[in-house]
Write a structure and sequence with these properties.
By secondary structure, this protein is an all-alpha fold. The protein has 10 helices and no strands. α1 crosses α3, α2 packs antiparallel against α3 and α4 packs across α6. The two termini are about 35 Å apart. About 40% of the residues are buried.
Length: about 260
């Protein structure tokens, strides 16, 4: 199953782990393991990647970062195969991602000579990039009845779906808001009219998918393994400039 109808799918450069994630999900369907268990599994992979960075075992870190991306796809695929979408899983997934991202960038700071300001700017850039990608993707999913737990605007706690508790949904929503609210508001302020845009062409979405977490983690892992660790922070800081380029292209197309 996919997040978008077949005729609306685009080449998502951040989603390379989905074919493997879909296969893992199909294996897990008859087991007692839930999507939340898979989410915890990808969080563990992220922590193992961070530990590998501290040990300067960079190819091992690449392995765990790629495995994290695969499991990050598998939890949602498992929920869709079982037809058990949940806001609990959706928010837990996002909160785990930002926590791992922060620790990952901190670990890179510890093994390089980068300044703390580069560390903070790179982390902020990483998150703003991902937020723009998720913003445009959520617009597409809502427009074409894709992932039912995706919302363009996360302003109020959603009503719990079957099988989940409202208390957990509300708690995780508040946690999500605390982690992502600033980034969501910043991107929305930059491109308020995107939800009403008639055109989000596939080629643009493919370009914006380089802001997706899977692609970001792959770039970080490869730069570490290839001896380019000192360039990771400058790369993500400078690449954040493409936020304005992609928004400008989106506006030009829909002028």
């Amino acid at each position: 199953m996919s997040k978008l109808p077949e005729n609306q799918q685009f080449l998502d450069l951040s989603d390379y782990g989905r074919p493997f994630g879909r296969q893992i999900a199909s294996w897990l369907v008859p087991t007692p393991l839930t999507p939340v268990h898979v989410t915890l599994g990808f969080a563990l992979c992220g922590l193992l990647a961070i530990f590998s960075i501290y040990q300067q075992h960079y190819w091992t870190a690449v392995f765990f970062l790629v495995l994290k991306s695969i499991l990050d796809a598998a939890d949602g695929e498992l929920a869709r195969m079982r037809k058990t979408p949940s806001y609990t899983g959706r928010y837990l997934d996002s909160v785990a991602d930002i926590g791992i991202n922060l620790l990952l960038m901190y670990s890179i700071w510890q093994v390089t000579d980068g300044s703390k300001w580069f560390f903070l700017l790179a982390f902020l850039g990483l998150q703003l990039q991902g937020t723009l990608y998720n913003y445009y993707y959520a617009i597409l999913k809502r427009r074409f009845q894709g992932d039912t737990t995706s919302r363009i605007f996360e302003r109020t706690p959603p009503k719990a779906l079957a099988g989940e508790r409202q208390g957990w949904v509300t708690f995780l929503f508040r946690l999500y808001q605390g982690c992502y609210g600033l980034f969501d508001r910043a991107i929305y302020a930059m491109d308020r009219k995107a939800p009403s845009a008639k055109h989000l062409p596939k080629w643009l979405m493919t370009a914006v998918s380089t802001f997706g977490l899977g692609f970001q983690l792959l770039m970080i892992g490869l730069m570490l393994a290839l001896g380019l660790k000192d360039f990771i922070f400058p790369f993500f800081i400078s690449y954040s400039g493409f936020i304005f380029i992609f928004i400008g292209i989106r506006r030009y197309i829909n002028r």
